[in-house]
Amino acid sequence: MTRRVIAGCCALLIGSAVLVAQGGGRRPGSPPGDASLQIGGKWIDITYGRPLKRGRNVFPPGADYAKITHTDGATVWRAGANVSTRLKNEAPLVINGKTVAPGEYSLFIDVKSPGDWTFIVSNYAAAPRYDPNSTNKDALWGSFGYTPDKDVVRAAMKVETLPFAVEELTWSFVDVTNDGGRIAIMWDKTMASVPFKVGM
Questions:
Q1: DSSP letters of 178-199?
Q2: Vertex 115, ends 66 and 117: CA angle to 5°?
Q3: Model-level pTM?
Q4: Shortest CA distance to 123 belongs to which of 91, 160, 149?
Q5: pLDDT, tens only, 96-147
Q6: Nearest Cα to 31, choosing from 82, 104, 91?
Q7: Separation between Cα atoms, residue 29 and residue 169, nearest integer Å
Q8: What span, in angstroms and rounded, lies between the C-alpha atoms of 55 and 138?
Q9: Domain coordinates of the chain in residue numbers?
Q10: Which residues have CB under 8 Å from 135's CB, separation 6+?
Q11: pLDDT for 10-40, tens place per residue?
Q12: C-alpha closest to that of 30 among 67, 79, 72
């Protein structure tokens, strides 16, 4: 009897391990994502949370257009989910005529209307968790508490309608050449992008 119980427990543990290894465990509602680019031996990385569309009209027409991007009173969009969207660049980037020195930054987007999106590179650090009582004003969870005083660059984005719907929010590098390209975000049937050059 004891051997059967031990054998049964072992089988249950092995089965659970196999399920977890195969992705059968609990999955996050907004899984982590990353976009990477290498130009001239230097890396540019964007890390972010990937909310899913889940049948929603993400950018509906009218007064609710930017509602999903400005949750819980945030003044700008974290352009992802959970922890703040982060940019890490080993090379200087020139965006809207300004140089973003090599380093790590938070990315935000100010979404005002279907044709008025502003890309923001900020010196805010990313807080590891949401704490409304935090006294650290240099790190944010998402975009809660954002103010423009730490902005490094603000740039108008080109907003386009895609011929298909993107289920999971996606950052990407598009139209890449030897010295630059566009940083793009896609979700639902919308893509917004901003051009950049790799500085010297």
A1: SSEEEEEEEEEEEEEEEEEEE-
A2: 60
A3: 0.84
A4: 149
A5: 999 999 999 999 999 999 999 999 999 999 988 888 778 788 888 888 889 9
A6: 82
A7: 12
A8: 36
A9: 29-198
A10: none
A11: 443 334 343 334 445 687 778 889 999 999 8
A12: 79
